[in-house]
């Protein structure tokens, strides 16, 4: 097992890979648990040796993958401060926000064999926590819009009966977004600066869910919830 | 016992928002599982009387059940609202007890497994210390014996499977490959082509068993290093779901016929099927043995059963792959001779012989139907593959077997290569042996 330190070129890649894999699983799980999509499209799969729910819908999966593909370079360079999964009601006001705050500890090295299983254990705990977050959150408003709008791409697809919609926001440090606008990582998948309407939440209630500190990454998950959801 | 435990459980459930299963509670507080079950029951009772914040509970029900005229023993974890309904369907109820208590209403049973996973992993050596299941004959196999068994296993393999003589190493390997193949069956439309290739080894059973069996084989796979766990549950191996019971009886005859016809030869599809058939054989045999069950024996298999009611939609999927799977078992037997020639050719040479073969693979097809709704269907498609490709990956797979040691950038690769290993081990080595990948450790 080679020792990787921060100076190594692919160290950032390694950490970003782990995080993006985790974020993908987490986003699918959030969509399942918060009933953003009907549970019929979800299928049980395995990650970190525990069962998780993942959607079968190809376009949804592609959207999430593309989003994270674009986020990955930001995480590699430690530019991404927060990744937020925002659930919005039909007027596109945020109702709930799952925020993953990511930071990297200064002294980084991947050297020990047990590190990865330790990280796996911590991520497993995150997954478990998301599964039971129902207990602390109010129900989202049911919605009868038949339109699911993707925030960061230009297509609108009807997917049966959608309830709320969701979007992924990334808060970056400094001016990292300028690079993102210049370089389109994925064709036809532009990132735009989020509207104030999509970001601002009225009377948010903060509910911390989980924190983890490991040698390679520090992550915190909390939920901001609007006081009145209907 | 003092009342302190009520406060403890209260803290776990309400303050920390944990799911408290009886197994987790017994390992955390260091009490016998039966005590833990009673603690949970009293806590639930106490809280319900106080009528404070709503609590949800799941129950484990086990007893006799007659399914389509076939008596079977069923062990299930059910939600509270389905408890009475479930109990009324059983012909004889052997045990009912609280499985878990939590504040949130769980949508599916996945988290229940996650809760116990880490607790059991931390107590790997003595996870059965508080268990009520015990077998006097079950002793941990020493590592030297294990290594010898592993090397012995490839040669007398068909007999081994029937006898389950080697018990730990043998049986342990099969369930560990099952969930890996199960994942591949579910990872259908992944964009990476690599996944496509590695998904070739998938057969029907993963798909239909996936919702039920994945959960079942996961505890077994987790228990893979825990040889004493397997020694324990070996003798008292729990009967299967009613679907599997029906299937094992029908396909066991096919498997027996198939086995006789090809005593020492390998077939790709059959080789993959064979371990599962044998495993089911052993299960159906032990099912008869354990007819007179006591409550304690159920506990080992509690996780293998999933909540039946909330998954009516999966029952349709279960039915569809049933017929292809049976067809597949019969398919090798009528045509052993045809495949014997190309196979013997490939076996004669070294393992680098490139042979293109066709095999049936479970694939997922997504299409738009008339109403514009997306329909995802899982079906069998013939796919040709080359032995050489899998051999090339065999070496990668061997290295990827110990997850803790590999770099995380190849974590995804490992998971893929882990699944490829059973297929490649089957093809790469001379014998049809899943034990092949144990040797490369």
Describe the structure.
- The complex is a heterodimer of chains A (230) and B (441).
- Chain A has a 5-stranded antiparallel β-sheet with strand order 9-4-5-11-10. Chain A has a two-stranded antiparallel ribbon with strand order 1-6. A two-stranded antiparallel ribbon of chain A has the order 2-3.
- The longest helix of chain A has 23 residues, at 11-33.
- Chain A has helices spanning 11-33, 58-76, 113-131, 176-182, 196-199; strands spanning 4-5, 42-47, 50-55, 80-88, 94-103, 109-110, 148-149, 156-157, 165-172, 204-213, 218-226.
- Chain A is globular.
- Chain A has 230 residues and is α+β, with helices and mostly antiparallel strands.
- The model of chain A is unreliable at 144-163 (pLDDT under 50).
- Chain A is 31% helix and 29% strand.
- By secondary structure, chain B is of the alpha+beta class.
- In chain B, a hairpin with a 5-residue loop joins strand 5 (356-368) and strand 6.
- The radius of gyration of chain B is 23 Å and the shape is extended.
- The model of chain B is unreliable at 159-352 and 388-429 (pLDDT under 50).
- Chains A and B meet through helix 1, strand 2, strand 3, helix 2 and helix 3 of A and helix 5, helix 8 and helix 10 of B.
- Chain B: Residues 149-441 are annotated as: Disordered.
- Chain B: Residues 205-221, 262-291, 338-354 have a biased composition (Basic and acidic residues).
- Chain B: Keywords: DNA replication, Nucleus.
- Chain B: It is found in: Nucleus.
- Chain B: GO terms for molecular function: DNA-directed DNA polymerase activity.
- Chain A: Keywords: DNA damage, Nucleus.
């Amino acid at each position: 097992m080679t020792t990787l330190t921060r100076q190594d070129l692919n160290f950032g890649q390694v950490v970003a890979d782990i995080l993006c894999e985790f974020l993908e699983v987490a986003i699918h799980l959030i969509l399942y648990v918060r009933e953003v999509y009907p549970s019929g499209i979800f299928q049980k799969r395995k990650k970190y040796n525990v069962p998780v729910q993942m959607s079968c819908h190809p376009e949804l999966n592609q959207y999430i993958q593309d989003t994270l593909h674009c986020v990955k370079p930001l995480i590699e360079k430690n530019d991404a401060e927060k990744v937020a999964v925002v659930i919005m009601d039909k007027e596109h006001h945020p109702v709930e926000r799952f925020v993953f705050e990511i930071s990297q500890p200064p002294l980084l090295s991947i050297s020990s064999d047990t590190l990865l299983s330790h990280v796996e254990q911590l991520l497993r705990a995150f997954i478990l926590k998301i599964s039971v977050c129902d207990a602390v959150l109010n129900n989202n408003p049911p919605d009868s819009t038949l339109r699911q709008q993707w925030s960061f791409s230009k297509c609108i697809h009807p997917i049966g009966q959608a309830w709320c919609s969701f979007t992924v926001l990334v808060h970056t440090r400094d001016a990292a977004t300028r690079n993102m606008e210049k370089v389109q990582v994925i064709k036809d998948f532009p990132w735009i600066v989020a509207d104030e309407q999509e970001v601002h939440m009225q009377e948010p209630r903060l509910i911390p869910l989980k924190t983890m500190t490991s040698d390679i990454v520090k992550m915190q998950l909390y939920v901001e919830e609007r006081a009145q959801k209907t | 016992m003092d009342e302190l435990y009520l406060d403890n459980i209260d803290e776990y459930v309400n303050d920390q928002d944990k799911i408290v299963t009886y197994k987790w509670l017994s390992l955390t507080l260091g009490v016998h599982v039966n005590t833990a079950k009673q603690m949970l029951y009293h806590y639930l009772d106490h809280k319900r009387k106080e009528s404070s914040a709503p609590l949800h509970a799941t129950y484990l029900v086990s007893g006799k059940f007659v399914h389509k005229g076939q008596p079977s023993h069923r062990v299930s974890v059910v939600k509270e609202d389905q408890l009475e309904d479930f109990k009324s369907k059983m012909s004889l109820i052997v045990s009912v007890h609280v499985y878990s208590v939590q504040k949130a209403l769980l949508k599916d049973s996945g988290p229940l497994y996650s809760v116990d996973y880490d607790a059991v992993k931390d107590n790997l050596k003595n996870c059965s210390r508080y268990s009520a299941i015990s077998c006097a004959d079950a002793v941990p196999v020493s590592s030297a014996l294990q290594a010898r068994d592993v090397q012995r296993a490839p040669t007398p393999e068909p007999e081994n499977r029937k006898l389950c003589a080697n018990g730990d190493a043998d049986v342990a390997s099969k369930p560990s490959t099952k969930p890996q193949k199960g994942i591949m069956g579910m990872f259908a439309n992944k964009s990476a082509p690599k996944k496509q290739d590695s998904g070739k080894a998938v057969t029907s059973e993963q798909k239909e068993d996936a919702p039920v069996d994945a959960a079942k084989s996961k505890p077994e796979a987790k228990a893979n290093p825990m040889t004493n766990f397997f020694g324990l549950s070996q003798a008292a191996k729990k009967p299967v779901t009613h679907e599997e019971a029906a299937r094992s009886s029908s396909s066991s005859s096919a498997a027996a016929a198939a086995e006789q016809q090809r005593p020492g030869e390998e077939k790709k599809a059959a080789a993959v099927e064979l371990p599962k058939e044998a495993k089911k054989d052993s299960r159906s045999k032990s099912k008869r043995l354990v007819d007179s069950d006591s409550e304690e024996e159920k506990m080992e298999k509690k996780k293998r059963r999933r909540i039946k009611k909330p998954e009516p939609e999966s029952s349709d999927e279960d039915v569809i792959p049933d017929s292809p799977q049976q067809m597949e078992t019969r398919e090798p037997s009528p045509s052993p001779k045809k495949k014997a020639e190309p196979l013997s050719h490939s076996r004669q040479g070294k393992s680098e012989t490139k042979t293109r073969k066709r095999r049936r693979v479970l694939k997922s097809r997504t299409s738009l139907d008339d109403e514009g709704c997306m329909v995802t269907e899982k079906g069998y498609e013939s796919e040709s593959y080359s032995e050489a490709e899998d051999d090339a990956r065999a070496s990668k797979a061997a290295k990827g077997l110990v997850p803790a040691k590999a770099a995380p950038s190849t974590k995804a690769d490992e998971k893929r290569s882990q699944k490829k290993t059973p297929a490649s081990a089957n093809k790469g080595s001379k014998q049809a042996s899943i034990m092949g990948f144990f040797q490369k450790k």
